[in-house]
């Protein structure tokens, strides 16, 4: 039996051909369909920026896994976004090694500059602020990940140029 | 088994050079990479297992379980179920731990060689590298390294002309600390929520998809090629105390030269902090330290002579954990430090069992109260009770017992600080650690 979630009726999502092709490739590799579920969610997120209820439903139908199972997985992991995010997701580290070296000030400063709180997105849709625990670069603390890049030895005064740099990457 | 004579004293990091391409196959092979695999393929799997057992290698992920013993529980012989799985746990997310990233980025082939040797030893069929999703460079290097292996007959059918077949897949984690627990990791690979499983059955007998499965840390696998190449007695001779081999140690916090170093097992803690990390930064004094990442008990300067050896650190009521030391300086609030850690573990708890799901958030509430100057003396007693409720044996996995280790030791060593917060109704360290809204929203 498939449990139905409350899905907004006006929103229907069809998986794109590219998404289907990539998910098919995953299914080729796995012994059991459920083994592909996390990677399939990532494929959808790669193409759409986040995983909406409607795209969850579309995936559920396409790979024939219960919607509730997929939703339980999608809501468990930190890097599957169940809300829209901005172009760049900023992950300042809030692990203890960064905090010992002033990480908290860095996070405060980011909030002030972007005028958003943790988990929020700027109005221009450019930045989402989502602190992550220990990013594994503790000897270079404080650190932040953005755009698959690791920014090390952060200082408050270096933040504007980093944000600028990211903004320009977006403009390209 | 015969062994190479030119044995190094820094096996794990000897491949890391100034050359930024030192991680690639040709460079690795030029320095003797895959010699361990070649040597392993000349003898039987059980003979390799004997050598690993003889070496006294203990798991480098934190628990320190003897690797050879762990592996010996995997069913062998013609009746054994297949496929058998070998998994590298590269989901490094322990607060203050960053040693696996170095090995993943700089020596991907060392990990892969260890994994193939492991597969050969236990007659396994499929390997997985379960890697943290945020480790972008490491993922890229592992992916390229795997391709190099397939192109050079180091993976696939009839590896290096032998009868052994083995394939390796990479899984990038969607991010959750609990995925580092081996049965939670297996659930995650099966596409489920990463809740730990009840044991028994142990993964060695019924793990991934119900088949025999081994999960070991990155650094554990890295040791295998060298043990096979240079022999168990060489490996044991590397340690300065009882434990065998070398280990990647690290120090973070207010020290002069934070970093990572490969040193003999049993190197005294004080030597690592003073000689390698350069001692404390000017203007800062050492107040205490966590010897092996965020889920180990605090130790003090009086423990500097203790060797980094699993049992010796255990005698001091802490754990070697990941071997990455986190320094608490005299200007950072110990309550704030413990709060940061408890908050992390509360957030990363999978929510499966009660002491963890309910206990850790409640400990966070009490610590926030104390840090804000709103605490009462009875809160300290309650925190002590919560530590007992989350003790080993009361929980499904090791997350909650580890989570309360810094807290329970801080309540002993830094009790004055907790009481001062309560009596003066504010944080005595306020400026540095906690100047803003406590919830960091």
UniProtKB/TrEMBL annotation, chain A:
Binds 1 [2Fe-2S] cluster. InterPro entries: NuoE-like (IPR002023), NuoE_dom (IPR042128), NuoE_N (IPR041921), Thioredoxin-like_sf (IPR036249). Its cofactor is [2Fe-2S] cluster. It comes from the Bacteria. [2Fe-2S] cluster binds at residues 93, 98, 134, 138. It holds the Pfam family 2Fe-2S_thioredx. The keyword Iron-sulfur applies. One of its GO terms (molecular function) is metal ion binding. Keywords: 2Fe-2S, Iron, Iron-sulfur, Metal-binding. PROSITE patterns: COMPLEX1_24K (PS01099). Belongs to the complex I 24 kDa subunit family. PANTHER family: NADH DEHYDROGENASE [UBIQUINONE] FLAVOPROTEIN 2, MITOCHONDRIAL, NADH DEHYDROGENASE UBIQUINONE FLAVOPROTEIN 2, MITOCHONDRIAL. This is NADH-quinone oxidoreductase subunit E. It comes from Pseudoalteromonas denitrificans DSM 6059. The lineage of its organism: Bacteria, Pseudomonadati, Pseudomonadota, Gammaproteobacteria, Alteromonadales.
TrEMBL record, chain B:
Residues 335-380 form the NADH-ubiquinone oxidoreductase 51kDa subunit iron-sulphur binding domain. Its EC number is 7.1.1.-. The keyword Flavoprotein applies. GO terms for molecular function: 4 iron, 4 sulfur cluster binding; FMN binding; metal ion binding; NAD binding; NADH dehydrogenase (ubiquinone) activity; quinone binding. Pfam families: Complex1_51K, NADH_4Fe-4S, SLBB. Keywords: 4Fe-4S, Flavoprotein, FMN, Iron, Iron-sulfur, Metal-binding, NAD, Quinone, Translocase. Its cofactor is [4Fe-4S] cluster; FMN. It catalyses: a quinone + NADH + 5 H(+)(in) = a quinol + NAD(+) + 4 H(+)(out). NDH-1 shuttles electrons from NADH, via FMN and iron-sulfur (Fe-S) centers, to quinones in the respiratory chain. Belongs to the complex I 51 kDa subunit family. This is NADH-quinone oxidoreductase subunit F. It comes from Pseudoalteromonas denitrificans DSM 6059.
């Amino acid at each position: 039996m498939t449990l139905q979630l409350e899905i907004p009726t006006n929103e229907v999502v069809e998986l794109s051909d590219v998404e289907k092709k990539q998910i098919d490739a995953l299914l080729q590799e796995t012994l059991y369909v459920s083994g592909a579920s996390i990677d399939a969610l990532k494929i959808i997120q790669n193409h759409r920026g986040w995983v909406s209820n409607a795209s969850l439903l579309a995936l559920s139908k396409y790979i024939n896994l219960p919607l509730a199972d997929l939703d339980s997985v999608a809501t468990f992991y930190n890097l599957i976004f169940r809300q829209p995010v901005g172009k760049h997701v900023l992950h300042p580290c809030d692990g203890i090694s960064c905090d010992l070296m002033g990480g908290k000030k860095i996070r405060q400063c980011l909030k002030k500059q972007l005028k958003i709180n943790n988990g929020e997105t700027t109005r221009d849709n450019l930045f989402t602020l989502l602190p992550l625990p220990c990013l594994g670069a503790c000897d270079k603390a404080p650190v932040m990940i953005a755009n698959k890049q690791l920014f090390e030895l952060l200082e408050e005064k270096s933040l504007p140029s980093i944000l600028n740099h990211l903004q320009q990457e977006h403009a390209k | 088994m015969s062994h190479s004579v030119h044995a190094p004293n820094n096996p794990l990091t000897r491949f890391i050079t100034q050359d930024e391409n030192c991680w690639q196959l040709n460079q690795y092979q030029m320095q003797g990479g895959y010699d361990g695999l070649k040597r392993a393929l000349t003898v039987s799997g059980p003979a390799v297992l004997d050598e690993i057992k003889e070496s006294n290698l203990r798991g480098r992920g934190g628990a320190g379980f003897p690797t050879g013993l762990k592996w010996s529980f995997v069913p062998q012989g013609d009746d054994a179920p297949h496929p058998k799985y070998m998994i590298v746990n590269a989901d490094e997310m322990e607060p203050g731990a960053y040693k696996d990233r170095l090995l993943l980025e700089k020596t991907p082939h060392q990990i892969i060689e260890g994994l193939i040797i492991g597969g050969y030893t236990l007659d396994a069929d499929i390997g997985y590298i379960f890697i943290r999703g945020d480790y972008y460079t490491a993922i890229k290097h592992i992916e390229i390294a795997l391709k190099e292996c397939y192109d050079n007959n180091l993976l696939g059918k009839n590896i290096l002309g032998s009868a052994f077949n083995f394939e390796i897949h990479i899984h990038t984690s969607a991010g959750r600390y609990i995925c580092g627990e081996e049965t939670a990791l297996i659930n995650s690979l099966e596409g489920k929520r990463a809740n730990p499983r009840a044991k028994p059955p142990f993964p060695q007998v019924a793990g991934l998809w119900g088949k025999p499965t081994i999960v070991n840390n990155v650094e554990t696998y890295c040791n295998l090629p060298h043990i096979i190449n240079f022999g168990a007695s060489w490996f044991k001779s590397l340690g300065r105390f009882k434990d065998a081999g070398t280990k990647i140690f690290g120090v973070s916090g207010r020290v002069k030269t934070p970093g990572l170093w490969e040193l003999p097992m049993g190197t005294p803690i004080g030597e690592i902090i003073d000689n390698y990390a350069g001692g404390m930064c000017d203007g800062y004094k050492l107040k205490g330290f966590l010897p092996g990442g965020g889920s180990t008990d605090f130790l003090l300067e009086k423990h500097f002579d203790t060797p980094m050896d699993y049992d010796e650190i255990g005698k001091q009521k802490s754990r070697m954990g990941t071997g990455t030391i986190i320094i608490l300086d005299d200007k950072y609030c110990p309550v704030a430090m413990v709060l940061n850690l408890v908050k992390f573990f509360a957030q990363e708890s999978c929510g499966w069992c009660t002491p963890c799901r309910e206990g850790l958030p409640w400990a966070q509430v009490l610590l926030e109260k104390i840090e804000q100057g709103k605490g009462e003396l009875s809160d300290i007693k309650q925190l002590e009770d919560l530590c007992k409720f989350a003790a080993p044996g009361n929980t499904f996995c090791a997350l909650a017992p580890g989570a309360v280790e810094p807290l329970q030791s801080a309540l002993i060593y830094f009790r004055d600080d907790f009481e001062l917060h309560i009596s003066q109704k504010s944080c005595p360290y306020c400026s540095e650690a906690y100047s803003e809204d406590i919830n960091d929203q």
